[in-house]
Amino acid sequence: MSKLTDRISYLQGLAEGMKLNPDKDSHRLILGILDVLGDVGENIEALAESHGELSEYVESIDEDLADLEADLYDDENEDTAPETDDEEFESTIEYECPHCGAVIKIDPDDVDFDEDSICPECGKDLFPELPEGAEEEPDEEADEEADGEESDDDE
Question: I want to staple 130 with a disulfide (CB 3.0 to 4.6 A). Which of 20, 41, 114, 134 is the partner?
Answer without folding.
Answer: 134
